[in-house]
Design a protein that fits this description.
Distance between the termini: 69 Å
Number of strands: 5
Number of domains: 3
Low-confidence stretches: none
CATH class of the largest domain: Mainly Alpha
Strand order of the largest sheet: 1-2-3
CATH architecture of the largest domain: Orthogonal Bundle
Strand content: 5-15%
CATH superfamily of the largest domain: SLC41 divalent cation transporters, integral membrane domain
Number of helices: 24
Largest sheet: 3 strands, mixed
């Protein structure tokens, strides 16, 4: 609501080309708030407002625009000015943005950039989506190990304007091999010892990642060691860049969103829900619904094989929903727990035996509890000896559900696939089929 109040004033400033007030508007608020107040402007007006401030602040405000608006601005505004803007953006952010721009425009913009900037962008563009290299930035503080604390401060002062963050100072040799790391806190604490060298301050046991590492693995490492940034190195341990905590948060948010989609049997959306076309949304939902539909047909086929038993003992039909829902719900719980544990690093593939033992125990506990309730309910419809069909079935189906829900995500992980793809609907369908088979065969034994 508040952002619309500024629109008439902003448009009036633009009509009058009031440079002083437009510059004050850009500089007074936090860049995120400034970008929010500009939402009602079209892209031409927004770019005109940004042209009244310096390049550094312009890039900061621009970075808080929605990606769709950023893409439109880059595609429509003067190329020379856009090229200047791109040089000011964080290295990883600009590569992500250019990935959404037409290749013809990208090539034109790259030709207008300084050769060093162009090489940096092309180097980062080579890393596939989902890898550590695709989210790293080549802006980081690096110093030699023989530099004294006082000289290090002087050098950082010269580098500061070009750096995205200075959480850590990476100590390297002449060929950029990573030797150690000094945190900003350590450096400040050593101000009283100005002649001490960085080689004496640095920690040599540094957690690193390769540019080809999966983003999810990097997230786990950063979370485990409580890092603000993690260096990206090659196989010779040469520094290539760093991944900062804000990029890690973005990756975590994307991973979580994808898992939510897959657990609900929906192909992950590339845009927001409201910006995704109905045709695209229908396809992403329909493809999985079709797969699940044919899987559900197998459940109907399984029931058809036992038509004789169901016709002879009609009360068995009453408990079919109870049996299959108990197994499906139990399987969903196990699958959700295992997927979450895999994503947070709580378990690894080598723990599968422990997982099996725990889920067997859990299946016995939960199955026995539900079996007792089911037996009491069945006594209303059948004699005590015949009523044993339901509790025995429930115990076996719940055991089947816990094991299936736990082992299927582990199997997907072992195959190199996303465990979340073994989503709750898939587990439910599998357990439904097994539940019918178990139910009917137990019924044959007792009846």
């Amino acid at each position: 609501m508040i952002n619309t109040l500024y629109l008439p004033e902003l448009r009036e400033m633009l009509r009058e080309q009031n440079h002083a007030e437009l510059r004050e508007f850009c500089e007074t608020l936090h860049p995120a708030r400034t970008a929010e107040f500009m939402e009602g402007l079209n892209v031409d007006e927004a770019w005109q407002v940004l042209s009244h401030t310096d390049e550094g602040l312009r890039s900061q405000i621009f970075s808080f625009f929605e990606q769709e608006r950023q893409v439109e601005i880059i595609a429509t505004q003067p190329r020379e000015e856009i090229a200047s803007l791109i040089t000011e953006l964080p290295h990883d952010d600009r590569v992500d943005l250019l990935a959404h721009i037409d290749e013809e425009i990208v090539e034109d913009l790259l030709a207008r950039l300084p050769s060093e900037e162009r090489r940096d962008i092309n180097r980062l563009r080579q890393y596939p989506e989902g890898t550590a290299g695709s989210v790293m930035t080549t802006d980081f503080a690096k110093l030699g190990e023989t530099l004294s604390v006082s000289k290090a401060f002087e050098e950082l002062g010269r580098q500061a304007e070009q750096l995205e963050t200075i959480y850590y100072i990476y100590v390297v040799d002449d060929e950029d091999h990573l030797l150690g790391v000094v945190s900003t806190r350590q450096l400040v604490s050593a101000m009283g010892r100005p002649n001490e060298q960085l080689g004496e301050l640095m920690e040599t046991n540094v957690e690193v990642c390769l540019p080809t590492d999966r983003q999810a693995d990097v997230v786990h490492k950063v979370a485990k060691f409580d890092l603000l940034a993690i260096p990206v190195v090659d196989h010779q341990r040469r520094m290539l860049g760093i991944i900062t905590h804000d990029d890690i948060i973005d990756v975590m948010a994307e991973e979580a969103a994808e898992d939510v989609y897959r657990i609900g049997a929906v192909d992950p959306l590339e845009e927001t829900y409201l910006k995704t076309s109905l045709l695209t949304l229908s396809w992403k939902r329909g493809i999985w619904l079709t797969i699940l539909f044919f899987a559900a047909l197998l459940t109907a086929y399984a029931m058809n094989q036992y038509e004789k038993e169901l016709s002879a003992t009609k009360w068995l039909v009453l408990f079919v929903p109870l049996v299959i829902s108990s197994g499906g719900n139990t399987g969903n719980q196990s699958a959700t727990l295992i997927i979450a544990a895999l994503n947070t690093g709580g378990i690894a593939l080598r723990d599968w035996r422990r997982v099996v033992r725990r889920e067997l125990a859990m299946g016995l506990i939960l199955g026995t509890f539900l079996a007792i309730i089911g037996y009491v309910a069945t006594l209303l419809k059948a004699p005590p000896d015949v009523a044993l069909v339901i509790p025995v079935t429930l115990l076996l189906v719940v055991l089947c559900g816990t094991l299936s829900g736990a082992l299927l995500p582990l199997l997907f992980k072992r195959l190199g696939l996303d465990p979340a793809m073994m989503s709750n609907p898939f587990v439910a369908v599998i357990v439904d089929i097994l539940g019918i088979v178990i139910y009917m065969n137990v019924a044959r034994l007792f009846l």
